[in-house]
Amino acid sequence: MILVYFALIIIIPIYAQIKVKSAYKKYSKIPSSSGMTGAEVARRILDQNGLYDVRIEETPGLLSDHYDPRTKVVRLSTNNYYGNSIAGAAVAAHEVGHAIQDQQDYAFLRFRHALVPVANIGSNFSWILIIAGIIFTMANLILVGIIFMAAAVLFQLVTLPVEFNASSRAMNEIVSAGVIRNDEERETKKVLNAAALTYVAAAAVAVLELLRLILIYTGMTREE
């Protein structure tokens, strides 16, 4: 049973990464019908939504694209910033989706931002407490560690609606902006769905790990 568990938490993230890299690699070689670069796609969608103050910047790395709500900047990796592929357009539109969420005070996005400090503390200190609790057979210390970890898991779970909503907005915006044709929607969705899978995998692994620790805690309390 333990071997199956560890196989799952290793295989699930690897599978998700393979899917997203495979989809991105495939569709980054296919230019969109509009021929627009990722930067142009992002600018058009931002302007369509009145987000003239949101800047677009190039950022190094592969699939390092993100939206920074603190500085109101959409950052696109080099290939997506300058490239005119379906994959680049999809990723750019997705990140702009987060900017639109920010503009509209999307509830789950605000909740996720509020959870960041707590989630960081949970991620950094939970394992220290849990390992110490296991070594010294102190169930209460494990329980405190589990509570800290639960905050980090909650952050992962709240991330799911944020990412799925951003992808949904991306599809609507990219079509209305005339970036892709109807026959390109299927390919665009494949890129967005593959990217979303990485968040699903991360949340699944986090939940599995939390459940395992809860079982360890309940086992120790029964023995006391």
TrEMBL record:
Q: Output the superkingdom of the source species.
A: Bacteria
> Keywords, A to Z?
Membrane, Transmembrane, Transmembrane helix
Report if keyword Membrane is assigned. Answer: yes
The answer to whether the entry has keyword Transmembrane is: yes
| Any Pfam family | Zn_peptidase_2
- TM segments? 127-155, 191-217
Signal peptide range in chain numbering: none
Which protein are we looking at?
Zinc metallopeptidase
The organism named in the record is Bacillus timonensis
Name the lineage.
Answer: Bacteria, Bacillati, Bacillota, Bacilli, Bacillales
